[in-house]
Inverse folding.
């Protein structure tokens, strides 16, 4: 698997060494094109090379992965030039999120109180810079759109963004925009006035971090450190490990409410935070930061996120950042923050665990994205209202079993590394539920859960010590099943780490059966794959919302106006070698079938194969 992923003929990496989201270019899911990449892919790249170092003893590849990540997806000082103008007492100006895309642009409202940022000073003190050390979530690796760097039109990879208009904005309704908007493309104000309403607009840069990816990078660095130390080669990766600790320091921004307000908000007038009392100690959906491109104008902002999803938590990273000396961040309160977060995350899982065992959606401190009053019947987790589909609704954010596998794999690693009893309690119930929904046939074909349906809610609010009690009124049903290989790889890792510590024979045998089945039935020249029928591609000609009267241009000249569709502002897609299959479908033919090779999925399978051999060397 490693050799296939690294074979240049297979096309997993750009000429710069950046891992693509997928080998195939025509792919629309979270990224809207396969040759974009995500911080997720980079974090998996680190994991792949950590496993390679363990097996081969060669740590140069892990170091290359870290330096490539640092060069291309962690913004350099020149890409975030005005952070020194940031005022931690006024982190950002409030703008509400809205369920209906037509409510955008969202007006900035300086009348809403915003809390203070308690970690900016200690981060600057620790690292001697005002810059943020975190990954932006999305890159246009081949500069397919043509934004380039800060409007130059040519530099690649290029920082871009897509989503920015509330929970109903699916990928098929997005308007991609450059992360550095110099008004060269779009309308008179670039793309800014599609999203934010203001009296006037300034050229600016802005980045959004996906906390689960940065936490996964820390997780990969932990295993690299563990394995290199076993080999007496810890010193060879000391720089990368130190930078992982640094990344974990800045990742604490994900613990904060979007506008640094205190938990329990039911209106925009709710109390602004001071010190740490705006921290939820969970990994929220994002943190973001931005500022003026003009250093003489000089302003900058930072926000957290009010929405917390069960699938984004990473107790393994929290444990490593608070307990492993080489990964302890320099920030003066970082270790205590991550120690608190570790406990809080496990409590969150327990509070969200359904009667059957699956983990429900999450909790928010900003109901409907604008601090509305949540229904009074909803239970609260440390003041935040239960939300079965936090962040996005098209499709519902917690219907995908992959979030279960990804998240519980981290819990299983934490349990394996520490023997933590509370983690085991969550896993005992989850594994039993997941196994009951898993079928592996004698020929190696398999079915694992895919779409989940949710009813009910946690039985009670929780804001105490210890663990929340079991839920009797929160339920999950499995609506359909899948043979998705990437999710199966992650799920197998969950089972094997759990089995290695608990001795559960069924978990061990099922992990092996899933991997053996993939190896027997799903290998191809590029790695592993299954046939995917993409019925959702009927949305590739859907209209996108553009306010009446707004008009602009994409870099290639595609017009953006109220008549635009997904494909009309991405006309280059019609030159894709796979487009004819989609066009036939849009014309009334059958849904196209693809064999995708996503970087994360290939790596989940590859590292699962490697990890099984490490945990069970006798098979």
């Amino acid at each position: 698997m490693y050799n296939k992923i690294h074979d240049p003929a297979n096309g997993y990496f750009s000429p710069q060494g950046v891992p693509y989201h997928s080998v195939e270019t025509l792919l629309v899911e979270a990224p809207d094109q396969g040759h974009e990449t995500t911080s997720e892919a980079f974090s998996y790249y680190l994991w792949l090379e950590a496993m390679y170092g363990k097996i081969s003893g060669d740590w140069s590849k892990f170091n290359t992965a870290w330096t490539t990540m640092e060069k291309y997806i962690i913004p350099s000082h020149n890409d975030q030039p005005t952070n020194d103008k940031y005022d931690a007492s006024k982190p950002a100006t409030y703008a509400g999120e809205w369920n209906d895309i037509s409510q955008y642009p969202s007006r900035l409202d300086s009348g809403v109180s915003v809390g203070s940022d308690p970690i900016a000073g200690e981060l600057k003190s620790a690292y001697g810079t005002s810059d943020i050390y975190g990954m932006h979530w999305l890159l246009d690796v081949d500069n397919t759109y043509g934004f380039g760097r800060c409007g130059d039109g040519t530099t690649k990879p290029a920082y871009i963004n897509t989503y920015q208009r509330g929970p109903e904005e699916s990928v098929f309704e997005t308007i991609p925009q450059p992360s550095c908007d110099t008004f060269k493309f779009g309308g008179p104000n670039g793309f800014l006035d599609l999203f934010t309403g203001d009296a006037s607009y300034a050229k600016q840069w802005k980045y959004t971090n996906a906390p689960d990816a940065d936490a996964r990078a820390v997780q990969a660095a932990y295993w690299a450190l563990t394995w290199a130390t076993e080999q007496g080669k810890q010193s060879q990766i000391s720089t990368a490990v130190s930078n992982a600790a640094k990344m974990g320091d800045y990742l604490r921004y994900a613990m904060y409410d979007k506008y640094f307000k205190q938990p329990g908000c039911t209106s925009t007038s709710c109390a602004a935070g001071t010190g740490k009392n705006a921290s939820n100690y969970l990994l929220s959906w994002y943190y973001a930061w931005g500022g003026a491109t003009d250093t003489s104008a000089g302003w900058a902002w930072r926000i957290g996120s009010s929405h917390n999803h069960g699938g984004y938590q990473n107790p393994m990273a929290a444990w490593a950042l608070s307990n492993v000396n080489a990964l302890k961040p320099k920030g003066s309160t970082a270790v205590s923050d991550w120690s608190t977060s570790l406990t809080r995350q496990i409590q969150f899982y327990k509070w969200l665990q359904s009667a059957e065992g699956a983990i429900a959606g999450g909790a928010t401190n900003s109901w409907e994205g604008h601090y509305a009053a949540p229904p009074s019947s909803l239970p609260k987790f440390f003041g935040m209202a239960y939300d079965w589909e936090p962040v996005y609704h098209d499709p519902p954010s917690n219907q995908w079993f992959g979030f279960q596998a990804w998240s519980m794999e981290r819990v299983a690693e934490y349990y394996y590394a520490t023997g933590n009893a509370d983690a085991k309690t969550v896993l005992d119930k989850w594994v039993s539920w997941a196994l009951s929904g898993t079928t592996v046939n004698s020929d190696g074909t398999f079915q694992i859960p895919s779409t989940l349906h949710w009813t009910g809610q946690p039985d009670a609010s929780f804001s105490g010590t210890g663990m929340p009690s079991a839920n009797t009124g929160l339920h999950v049903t499995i609506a359909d099943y899948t043979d998705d290989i990437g999710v199966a790889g992650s799920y197998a890792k969950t089972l094997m780490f759990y089995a290695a510590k608990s001795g559960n024979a069924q978990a061990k045998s099922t992990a092996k059966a899933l991997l053996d089945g993939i190896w027997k039935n799903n290998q191809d020249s590029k790695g592993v794959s299954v046939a995917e029928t993409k019925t959702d591609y009927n949305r590739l000609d859907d209209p996108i919302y553009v306010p009446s009267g707004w008009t602009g241009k994409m870099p290639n000249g595609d017009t953006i106006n109220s008549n635009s569709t997904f494909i009309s502002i991405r006309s280059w897609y019609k030159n894709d070698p796979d487009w004819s299959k989609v066009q036939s479908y849009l014309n009334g033919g059958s849904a196209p079938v693809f064999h995708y090779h996503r970087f994360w999925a290939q790596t989940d399978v590859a590292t699962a194969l490697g990890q099984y051999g490490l945990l069970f060397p006798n098979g």
